[in-house]
Amino acid sequence: MKKFLKVLVVLVLIALIYFRVQIYPQLDMLTGFSAKSVASGTFIDYRSLAVIEQGDNDIPMVRMADNTVNSEEKFAVSSLFGIKERKAIYREGLGATLINDAFDTKAPFEVPQRNVIENKLPYPLGNAHPVDTTFAEIDAVRLQKAVENAFDNNSEKNKRTRAVVVLYKDRLVAEKYAPGFSATSKILGWSMTKSITATYFGILQKQGKIDIMKPAPIAEWQNDARKKITLNDLLHMNSGLEWEEDYTKISDVTKMLFLEENMAQSQINKPFVGKPNQSWNYSSGTSNLLSGILRQQFKTHQEYLNFWYNSLFDKLGMTSALVEVDMAGNFVGSSYGWASARDWAKFGLLYLRQGNWNGEQLFDPSWARYVATPTQTSDGRYGAHFWLNAGGKFPDVPRDMYYCSGYQGQMVAIFPSHNLVVVRMGLSEAFDFNGFLKEIVASLEKDNKNTKK
């Protein structure tokens, strides 16, 4: 009996040490993720706590969090094992923000002043009801089957698709939503937000207000070799700066998203581990650094807030679009962009149309080519804050396809050679994008034949 007790004590001590060393330090991240997710889902898309816990938070360890929502004061609180409580507050116009104990929830704050340009054009070039269009070159049965196959049947939880939207030749030709979701549902794009962040540099360059080939305006870099890093290097994730993008542990990216007050500062003090334009390394810290650089372009915080909406979302009629801010008031340009699937498709269509929207050129046509040109040392996988198929990641999909990509399989795919935009929103990294996109492209029978000629 004594031996058994000794063994039991040893096992308990091992378990406690493992918890203290391996699990406890991660609890801030886990409860932070949960609180932020619950607050955003509740107040941005009006989802129930049950839907959020069974869907958005259905992630190992995160699903174990205890969550409560205060609907009157608009905040969510999460804890795990009764400890490491984290809080996220919601502010209209700014979305949900994960806060710490030092954050003043009663302090006044500015919100974006929107200037939505309404028109009576049918979707997608406007927000009126889409025109029912039949294209002779589309195999409608095959297209519909491809869309249907993207969703789970009955009680399956393999594909976990929430929305699919297909645009062809400026027309909506297919769309489908999972139960509980619709054309007005706002869905988090995660890292698709990076492509939005980059677009503002294209807009400013078109306006003659910035030169992306010049060194990045970071004061902390001016007295060392980092002063040679250009905006072009940052847009290509090719700065050579140290950064660890690992969501499975405590890393640079998890500390940034779930602990830091000012995410625009996260990569500023990182040293070189490579050379500019020769060391591609995917970094959410770089995207938030770029958001901070955008903020520097304006005299006031209000102008910065307005620019993200007035220069892009409002022009496109992306009325559902929202990018959330950190505690310092910076847009989280790496991860926290929300929009309906239809509005995400509008963003893709803007690039398909090379920056022209109803006669107004938001960015120069060369910008669309720029973001879709492979970054050095990325093996054809990455452009300027857009992912590419130039290296054949999806072997059965056209190589000219480039796309916005986000955690859990968010995608806005742009096919210049086929006049096609495809959006898929969901909760599964294992989703078969190659097969899905292959079938959609194949449904454009005559268009494919013409392309091959």
What layout of secondary structure does this protein have?
Elements: H1 2-23, H2 27-44, H3 49-54, E1 66-70, E2 75-80, E3 83-91, E4 95-99, H4 140-148, E5 161-168, E6 171-177, E7 187-188, H5 192-206, H6 231-235, H7 252-259, H8 284-296, H9 301-316, E8 322-323, E9 337-339, H10 341-352, E10 356-357, E11 360-361, H11 365-371, E12 387-388, E13 402-406, E14 410-415, E15 420-426, H12 433-442, H13 445-452
Antiparallel strand pairs: 1-2, 2-3, 3-4, 5-6, 5-15, 7-9, 8-9, 10-11, 12-13, 13-14, 14-15
Q: Biggest sheet, strands in spatial order?
A: 6-5-15-14-13-12
Average pLDDT rating: 93
Number of strands: 15
Query: How many helices?
Result: 13
Radius of gyration from CA coordinates:
23 Å
The secondary-structure element order is: HHHEEEEHEEEHHHHHEEHEEHEEEEHH
Termini Cα gap: 82 Å
Largest sheet: 6 strands, antiparallel
As a percent range, the share of strand residues is 15-25%
Q: pLDDT under 50 segments (min length 5)?
A: 12-22
Helix content percent band: 25-40%
Structural class: alpha+beta
Choose one word for the global shape: globular
